[in-house]
Please model this.
Amino acid sequence: MKFFDSHVHMVSRTTDDYQRMAAAGTVALIEPSFWQGQPRTEVGSFKDYFNTLIGFERFRASQFGIKHYCTIGLNPKEANNEKLADGVMELLPLYICKEGVVGIGEIGFDDQTALEEKYLRIQARMAVEADLPIQIHTPHRDKKAGTKRTMDVLEDTGCDPARVIIDHNNEESVKEVLDRGYWAAFTIYPHTKLGNERLVEILREYGGERIIVDSAADWGISDALAVPKTAAVLKENGTTMETIERVTYGNPLEAYGQSGQVSESDWEDAEGVDPSALFAGNTLFRGGQDVEEAMDQYKVIT
Amino acid sequence: MTLEEKLLEILQRSASLEAMDWLEKECAAQRADFVQRSFYYAFSGVSRRFDKKGALTLQDGDADELGAEVPGFTLEGWDQFRLGRVILLLVLAEQGEEVFNETLGKLLGTADLREQAAIYSALPLLPGGEKLVELAIDGLRTNIVDVFDSIALGNPFPAKHFSDEAWNQMVLKALFISRPVFRIVGVDERANANLAVSMSDLAHERWAAGRWVSPELWRSCQGELSDQIVEDMKRLVESEEPGQREAVALVVAGSDGRLKPLRDKIPNLIEEVNAGTLTWDHVGRKYGNAQFSVFNDQQSDKK
Model:
């Protein structure tokens, strides 16, 4: 089975994860711009971060046969530093229309402050102007109200809900998100937030339309295999294969495909992995390893 | 036909009507009222309008027409993205110096690989050539082959603007990373004694390591025959390694008396040189990006 993980922070993950993901069938992923566990203090740090997302990280993924896309934006946590945020707003127009950038994200609310709203509005307008999908981060605290407030702001700014993916949903937030016409993504974290069994119930209630499953794996305890593992749990619990395929592959492809920057042919027609490829003189494979050999150890989990 | 019209004409042979329409409208809009943010959207947004795998359709006569405008300028190896972006950069070049410099700096500082290649490819068409030299030299420090090639190969900018020092570094690095030297514009005109010494030294280093040396290395040594190079030629005329005797023939056929006796050792090759069927460009096409091991003579194409 093929999987599309539409939310995963690969800059924080090791090559073991890339190998496991490729072995488990992840053919494409989206890396949203986010904070990095601590606040950045210089605009230049964002520039280099964005350059990594469109540069070396894309190369790393390609070395495991995985297509890497990204969304570019200022996350709500760092939106609370106004001077920094203004600098990032100047930077964004340089990136958002680049090849392989499938939207503006992840943006939204964290503490739900006035500054967070200010930069959510600016970025939402930018997405409308550049005709791009939006990837929304919903707050972990006061989620239901924060999600509702996010949608109010987006609609006030002229965004089309069909081009917005609202992430980190739970049982409490999903109904209104779907009712108002948005895509609803669910992050499957081990132990916290939403376990994969809870998703079985959600799919039973809402079906697979406009629902997306992602891992949001990052620098914390999280699972880069959350999407394929969820697919396995859903199957065991009797979810139809058609629904599983939709929420783990077809829906994220359709939602972000609206950017015109991602299509199935990107991986279906790919020429395979060239282990001798270099990026800025760097290779990922040491001492003449080849990809097949490097991957073999992970095949047991499929 | 202006250069820009010619470039548009070439691009439209392979690009979609919609993409061309978009590009021409963007150029007109930016000319009427230059807005930095819209320019960023357009420059990167070329990727949203043109075919990402779209090659150009070049025709006989293109090279001559382009060369008449900007000597040495060709579109060999370009794709639709690159040409679309270069056309937009021509519009940027019409803005005031301050806007041009600031915008170009920002584009380059945030460019992905294909955008970098487009910016460097545009250098010979942009104003203030001397001021862009540092950008080009810095660009050559890359280890990304496509970016290096966009400056070093088929681009008349370095030959026109580089100091000998910068030129020599570029040609040396091209050989070092197995790039085809025959595609460097001005490679014969910019040859100099210092470069010839460096080239011969590079060959000696490679030999010490038991490695093959591209015959293109000797192209920059013609006419600069130091004693060491004369000895190198005497050694190579006996060499079985791929391409070496061809290189000797090319050096010797047009050189002074000291090497005359070597001609008799390779009469057939000398004849080919005199007949014009063996040239540096032939050697470059054959060996320019090849890599051989001298121990087994097996060609291993560098991918």
The beta strands of chain A are 3-5, 26-32, 67-72, 101-108, 134-137, 164-166, 183-187, 211-214.
